[in-house]
Write a structure and sequence with these properties.
Length: 512
């Protein structure tokens, strides 16, 4: 029997409020898992990364700024009982709701109108990616997830032969995590889909990300595989932010489905340490308050976000006084090197992979599209544009100004995407760059040849890091939106030397 009055306006209203909430609040089960992992952490670098992630959750919630500067694509999945009546326009108003939410909450807009042709930004973060799923019985659940590009890019679909079995699945997952985890802002929440078809197995994996951290599969055989995978992943030594440690993943969840006799589809969906999702039972919800308290209350009652969100603020260290001075218990100030930018190559020669640094002075944000333009200018004129010689590039796309700061949130994007251009730019005069994740051998060789350095900042700590940006001034390419060239002034911005002028690589060191 039909039990709900489903309509597009109601779904759109819930999506709009969920976006503003999710962008600024870490999922409570993830927060608690991070806090528990911090208690078990041993190394100074590992502890400090956890401290940044927990501090970031507190700052984001208190200041209503994004947890991560990549405020993601919007995934909306409506699960509806087959006995319910579903109007044909159920998702018609979702895009308008997404556009309003991203404007109202000052979120970064990252969606392109077409992946291949033109690649122009829609400037609304639409379209949202909506799915309708039928289930037995009555009722409906609305799932909303903000999914960042870095963790999505690290994900994978593999069509295994049936004979691969449990062992083949396990080895494929370990191999993918070994090579891509550092780009996906670990510690990871890993969702795996097994079964269905090529085009649907990814949906299974994304649904697995909705499961609360620590909740095992109902099937004991699958639960055992989840447990074994989590143990093996955490023995890899990749650690939080990929900078070494015992906690590379917080959880592994597997969802399975029927499939063809000739197939064993596997989807590996990497969820980052800033997991942003909520599941709303529409049968028990009449609406959401604009202040978010209704959503907060419901999150505390639903499995996807178990503890009350107040723990985000009270259990995490209140960091505005401590963070500004970079004084956290896990890393003594005596062990930190202070660098004033622009920095000379002679000074860079004194740095070693693994050194903790505080960066102060100008950097220039440049991402994928900016690198393409810089290379074109270099090839046309033989020089870097905009007097970038001797400067440091920050691979970042910040969110708009918020909370009295020039940017609401800013953090590193996956550096390997810039590997195609980095050697040429270093040869042309760039002396350093800031990003996250591993680089290619070509980049390591270029650092040696030019006396340059690659710094790694902690991904998933963008509200925390925004406190260390004192100004942000557009320089060029404003048509690129968040990928524009911007001059930022940093003040005691925390990072680590990832590749030094001798080619030593911190990411390789921690997994050796």
């Amino acid at each position: 029997m039909r039990t709900l009055e489903l309509n597009g306006a109601r779904v759109a209203e819930l999506v709009e409020e969920a976006i503003g909430y999710l962008a600024t609040h870490l999922r409570p089960d993830v927060h608690d898992a991070l806090a528990a992992a911090r208690c078990d952490a041993c190394g100074a670098r590992e502890c400090f990364v956890f401290d940044q992630l927990l501090a970031n959750a507190a700052v984001a919630a208190d200041d209503h700024t994004p947890l991560c500067q990549d405020t993601g694509s919007v995934w909306v999945c409506l699960e509806v009982g087959r006995e319910e009546l579903i109007p044909g326009d159920i998702f018609d108003q979702v895009d308008d709701a997404v556009a309003r939410a991203y404007e109202r909450t000052a979120l970064r807009k990252s969606i392109l109108a077409d992946a291949l042709v033109g690649r122009s930004n829609t400037k609304t973060n639409t379209p949202a990616f909506c799915e309708l799923e039928l289930r037995p019985g009555t009722g409906a659940t609305l799932h909303v997830m903000l999914k960042g590009g870095g963790s999505d890019n690290a994900s994978q679909v593999v069509m295994l032969p049936p004979g691969a079995g449990f062992e083949g699945i396990e080895e494929a997952v370990i191999e993918r995590v070994r090579h891509k985890a550092s780009c996906a802002c670990p510690p990871l929440v890993l969702g795996l889909g097994v079964g269905s078809t090529f085009d649907r197995v990814g949906h299974l994996a994304k649904k697995a990300l909705l499961r609360p951290v620590g909740q095992s599969s109902d099937d004991p055989r699958v639960a055992e595989l989840e447990k074994r995978l989590l143990s093996r992943i955490n023995q890899l030594g990749i650690g939080p932010a990929g900078l070494g440690g015992a906690c590379t993943a917080l959880s592994v969840a597997i969802e399975t489905a029927p499939c063809h006799i000739a197939a064993l589809p596997l989807a590996i969906q990497m969820g980052c340490s800033a997991m942003r999702s909520v599941s709303i039972d529409l049968a028990t919800t009449s609406g959401l308050s604009r202040k978010g308290s209704s959503l907060e209350d419901r999150s505390a009652k639903t499995p996807s976000a178990a503890p009350a969100l107040a723990s985000n603020r009270s259990d995490s260290p209140r960091t505005h006084d401590a963070v500004d001075r970079f004084r956290v218990p896990s890393l003594s100030e005596e062990g930190i090197l202070r660098l004033h930018l622009p920095v000379s190559r002679d000074e860079l020669m004194t740095l070693h992979a693994g050194d903790a640094v505080l960066l102060s002075g100008p950097v220039y944000t440049m991402r994928d599209a900016g690198h393409m333009r810089a290379l074109a200018e270099l090839q046309a004129t033989g020089r870097l544009p905009f007097d970038l010689q001797g400067q440091t590039l920050f691979y970042a796309g910040p969110t708009p100004a918020a909370a009295g700061r020039p940017v609401g949130a800013v953090g590193p994007t996956t550096a390997s995407r810039m590997d195609f251009a980095t050697p040429q730019l270093l040869e042309a005069g760039i002396v350093a760059c800031i990003g996250k994740g591993e680089r290619s051998q070509r980049v390591r060789d270029a650092c040696v040849a030019t006396g340059s350095v690659y710094f790694a900042a902690v991904g998933g700590a963008a509200s925390f890091l925004a406190q260390h940006v004192s100004s942000a001034t557009p320089v060029a390419w404003e048509d690129l939106g968040t990928e524009a060239l911007v001059r930022m002034e940093l003040k005691d911005f925390p990072a680590f030397v990832a590749i030094d002028t001798r080619g030593m690589d911190l990411y390789q060191e921690v997994t050796a």
